[in-house]
Amino acid sequence: MYCIPSVAVLASDTPHSHIVPNISYIYTVSLFFFCNFNSPAVMDAVLSSLFSSEEEEVYILDRMAYFMVFMAACTLVTLLFENVPYGRYASSKYGFPVNVRFAWFVQEMPAFLVPLCLVVWTSSAKTSLLPNQLLIAMYFCHYIQRSLIYPFLIRGGKSTPFASFALAFVFCLYNGYMQIRYLSHYAEYPAYWVTHPCFIAGSVLWFFGWLVNVHSDHILRNLRKPGETGYKIPTGGMFEYVSGANFLGEITEWAGFALAGYSVHSSAFAIFTTVVLTSRAVAHHKWYHAKFEDYPKSRKALIPFLF
C-alpha cells in the first residue's frame, strides 16, 4: 500500500513518538482490512450483517443526518464560549500535540477511504446514474485534495491537540459513510435532474467554492518566505474582502453540494460545516484586528461587504 510509508515518515516527526506509532499501526491495519474486502459480495455481506434490511439502513442514514444537525446546534452553543482548539488557538488541555501534517493526513483519510470502499467494493446500485456520479465526483474532488495533497503542502504550522485530531477523524468516518452510502446505493433522482436549476446552481456554487478554497489555502501557505516566522496579513483573492476566505470557499462548496444533492444528508453536512467554519472565520477576524493595527478596516469576517 503506497500510503503506509507516508504515515511512518510523518509519525517520525511528531511529539510523543512512543504513542504515534501505535496510532499509525492501528490505521495501517484498518487500511489493510478495508482494502482487502475487494469483493462486492464480501462487503455487501458485512453491511447486510449490520442492518436487517435496506429500509433499516436508509432509516439509520436519515437519523445520522438529523443527529448531525443536532450536533451542529450543540457545537454552535459551545463555540460561543470557546474557539475551536487548533492552530493559533491550540491548548494543552485538549491533549498532547500531534504533528500537523500527520494529523491532517490521518484525520481526513477516512473521508476518502470509506467512500472509496463503498463505491468500488459494494454493489453500488446507483453509481451508474449521472446525477449520482456527478455528486460523488464533487465529494471525491474535495477529499482527494484534502487528504492526499493538502497535508503534504503544509509549511510549518502548529501541532494539533489530540482531542481535535480524534474528533476530526470520527467526523470524517461518520460523514464519509453517510454521504457516499446514500449517494451510491439509495439516492434516486429524476432523469432530468442534471438540468434542474437546483442542480445547475448547486454545481456552479460548488465549483466556485472549491476554487476559492484551494486558492485561499495557496495564499496562506505562501505568506512566509523560507526561513520566516510569525504571522502576516493575507492578501489577494477573496482575502481582499474577508478574513476567512478559505472558510468562505469551503462553506460555499458544501452549500452548493447540498443544493445539487437536495437531501437531508448533504444539507446536514452543509449546516455543520457552516457552523464550525463561521466560528473560525469570526475568531480569525477578531484576532487579526487585535494583532495588526494596520489591518484593513473594510475587510469583513466571512461575507464580503456584509459580515
Summarize the structure.
By secondary structure, the chain is mostly helical.
Protein topology:
Elements: H1 3-12, H2 20-35, H3 40-50, H4 54-79, E1 97-98, H5 100-108, H6 110-120, H7 130-149, E2 160-161, H8 162-185, H9 197-221, H10 245-261, H11 264-291
Antiparallel strand pairs: 1-2
Helix pairs in contact: 1-2, 4-8, 4-11, 5-7, 5-8, 6-8, 9-10, 10-11
Organism: Seriola dumerili (Greater amberjack)
EC number: 1.3.1.22
GO molecular function: 3-oxo-5-alpha-steroid 4-dehydrogenase (NADP+) activity
Radius of gyration from CA coordinates: 20 Å
Order of helices and strands: HHHHEHHHEHHHH
Cross-sheet strand order for the largest sheet: 1-2
How large a portion of the residues is in β-strands, by DSSP E?
A: under 5%
- Unreliable stretches: 1-23
On the 0 to 100 scale, the average pLDDT is 88
Main location: endoplasmic reticulum
Membrane topology: Multi-pass membrane protein
Keywords: Differentiation, Endoplasmic reticulum, Lipid metabolism, Membrane, Microsome, NADP, Oxidoreductase, Sexual differentiation, Transmembrane, Transmembrane helix
Function: Converts testosterone into 5-alpha-dihydrotestosterone and progesterone or corticosterone into their corresponding 5-alpha-3-oxosteroids. It plays a central role in sexual differentiation and androgen physiology.
